[in-house]
Amino acid sequence: MKTWTVGALLALVFCIGLSPAVSAKMIRIGEHQIVAHPALDNDSKGFKAALEEEGFIEGQNITIDRQNAQGEQPNCFIIAQKFVDDRVDLVHAISTPNAQASVKASKSIPIVFSSVTDPVSTGIIPLMGETGTYVTGVSDRWPITLQCRMYKNLVPGATRWGTIYNPGDINVTYHIKEMKEAVEAMGDKLVEAHVSTTAEVMQAAESLVGRVDAIHITSDNTCVSAFESIVKICNANDIPLFAGDRDSVPRGAVAAYGPDYFLIGYTAGKQAARILRGEDPGKIPAGLASDYSLWVSFKHADAQGLALPETLVRKAADKLWDKDGNVVKGK
Fold this sequence. Notes:
Blueprint: H1 6-17, E1 27-33, H2 38-53, E2 62-68, H3 73-86, E3 90-94, H4 96-105, E4 111-116, E5 135-139, H5 144-154, E6 160-165, H6 170-185, E7 189-194, H7 201-207, E8 214-217, H8 221-225, H9 227-237, E9 241-243, E10 255-258, H10 261-276, E11 287-288, E12 293-297, H11 298-303, H12 310-316, E13 319-321, E14 327-329
Parallel strand pairs: 1-2, 1-3, 3-4, 4-5, 5-11, 6-7, 6-8, 8-9, 9-10, 12-13
Antiparallel strand pairs: 10-12, 13-14
């Protein structure tokens, strides 16, 4: 007859008590983003929150190796290869360069991307919906045309719109093309300034002074990570500043109509949980971000010499800051 020790019996009881949906194995996740700024950071936070809701708790049954490429695209490939060498169970790639690097580095590790503008044109997936590959995720493609029209309503006298971006970031080139078409369709002109690093952003903003009536920053991670530099120039020269990610409004933008990046990461986290439970990534549909909303700051409008149409703004804004910087509408 086999003899059972107390320790063995306790171990058996523990194993039986585990949820069948969550493995007792310590699951390893590799997460990397192109640069640190509030939108992408909120993406990461949403991803973690969704995993926790599904029973995947960091430090208990999963580990997350978080890496930052510091704005350097070559670093994305180094990080992606590190995850392959470490044999992680899943990769969360935040932004286009990170997702591209992960897809190139591995043909078998499940990859969930987020905050990627056009995952099809950039070769990350063959199509939206069920991809039939080991990759799925959430696109953050913005409603550029609607943004341009909305910002024009807030500054009806503006005819020269400035923007700053890194032409080496393929993620943003699609937005710039759409922005140019939208601005010209309104009978206005788009004035571009190019950068390759965050150190060049302030100088680029200065180059637009006297040449533009307002500035609209799109999904350029280089500029968003140095957003305060643009704010400084706009405040000093009475140039209204608009953004596409809502997290830039507390940082100094007058307004932004865009998605909730926490929700983008949260949706990606739900996809990841399904994969970790055994589902095929290729059968989990890749989709678009949703739930856009308008954030507006009277304080920043004042700082940039803009008199906003108060009745319109108070009615349209989902979240609103008064002239003292207090939130008076929304959460």
